[in-house]
């Protein structure tokens, strides 16, 4: 990477893009809605059960001009989802401003482990024990999505729910390989704690990205 590329990466004019694609949102409050996903490379939170570990090293993914990313995304759909990896590792101000200029609504899926940036309409906070969220993001999160891998994650979910704002939607979602074991337990938990909802990875059942 050249010195100029490093400067432009830091400023958000370039971003490492693992993939970008038009599909159906499979999780959370907007399940079933068409959206254009931009998956940015780079993550150091390090969840052992992560299903996109290939996203972790940003150097493995090509740098793209934010203007090009925005134009491609907006030409396909006006609902944009920024995901990763961990998208907040990067300065999202230039990309989100350009998307806004093109009339887009912008969602983000984040662990919250980095400082907020960008113009964001919907914030999905998916906290991880290996890199807890910054305090500020709890105040602005629209939905809390806790991944359930083992029984201790129910305790973690309850702890995280105490920190979010009163309007934040609460979702439990099984780690995919544990779904047969965990969804019955999640059903029982939600019935006892009805402020929570179950989120199912419907895109995997639909066999789409």
From TrEMBL:
Q: Which Pfam families does the record associate with it?
A: Radical_SAM
Top-level lineage group: Bacteria
- Tell me the enzyme class: lyase
Cofactor(s) listed: [4Fe-4S] cluster; S-adenosyl-L-methionine; Mg(2+)
| GO BP term, example | tRNA queuosine(34) biosynthetic process
What Enzyme Commission number(s) apply to this enzyme?
4.3.99.3
Looking at the record, the residues that make up the Radical SAM core domain are: 30-209
Annotated binding of [4Fe-4S] cluster, by residue: 43, 47, 50
Question: How many and how are cofactors bound here?
Answer: Binds 1 [4Fe-4S] cluster. The cluster is coordinated with 3 cysteines and an exchangeable S-adenosyl-L-methionine.
Pathway per the UniProt entry: Purine metabolism; 7-cyano-7-deazaguanine biosynthesis
Matching Gene3D superfamilies, A to Z? Aldolase class I
Q: Which UniProt keywords apply?
A: 4Fe-4S, Iron, Iron-sulfur, Lyase, Magnesium, Metal-binding, Queuosine biosynthesis, S-adenosyl-L-methionine
Catalytic activity annotated for this protein? Answer: 6-carboxy-5,6,7,8-tetrahydropterin + H(+) = 7-carboxy-7-carbaguanine + NH4(+)
Q: Which GO terms describe its molecular function?
A: 4 iron, 4 sulfur cluster binding; carbon-nitrogen lyase activity; magnesium ion binding; S-adenosyl-L-methionine binding
Which intervals of the chain form a coiled coil? none
The record's listing under HAMAP family reads:
QueE
**Stated family:** Belongs to the radical SAM superfamily. 7-carboxy-7-deazaguanine synthase family.
Query: What name appears for this protein in its UniProt entry?
Result: 7-carboxy-7-deazaguanine synthase
Q: Which taxonomic lineage is given here? A: Bacteria, Pseudomonadati, Bacteroidota, Flavobacteriia, Flavobacteriales
Its gene is: queE
């Amino acid at each position: 990477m050249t010195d100029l590329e490093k400067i432009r990466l830091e400023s958000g004019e370039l971003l490492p893009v693992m993939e970008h694609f038009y599909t159906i949102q499979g999780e959370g409050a907007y399940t079933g809605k068409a959206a254009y996903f931009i998956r940015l490379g780079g993550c150091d939170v390090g969840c052992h059960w992560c299903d996109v570990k290939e996203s972790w090293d940003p150097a493995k993914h090509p740098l793209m001009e934010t203007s090009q990313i925005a134009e491609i995304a907006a030409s396909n759909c006006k609902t944009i989802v920024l995901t990763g990896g961990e998208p907040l590792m990067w300065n999202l101000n230039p990309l989100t401003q350009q998307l806004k200029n093109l009339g887009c609504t912008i969602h983000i899926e984040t662990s919250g482990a980095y400082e907020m940036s960008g113009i964001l309409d919907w914030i999905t906070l998916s906290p991880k024990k290996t890199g807890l969220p910054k305090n500020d993001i709890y105040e602005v999160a629209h939905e809390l999505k806790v991944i359930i891998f083992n029984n201790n994650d129910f305790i973690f979910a309850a702890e995280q729910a105490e920190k979010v704002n009163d309007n934040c939607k609460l979702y439990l979602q099984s780690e995919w390989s544990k779904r047969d074991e965990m969804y019955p337990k999640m059903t029982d938990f939600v019935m006892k704690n009805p402020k929570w909802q179950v989120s199912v990875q419907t895109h995997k059942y639909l066999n789409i990205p």
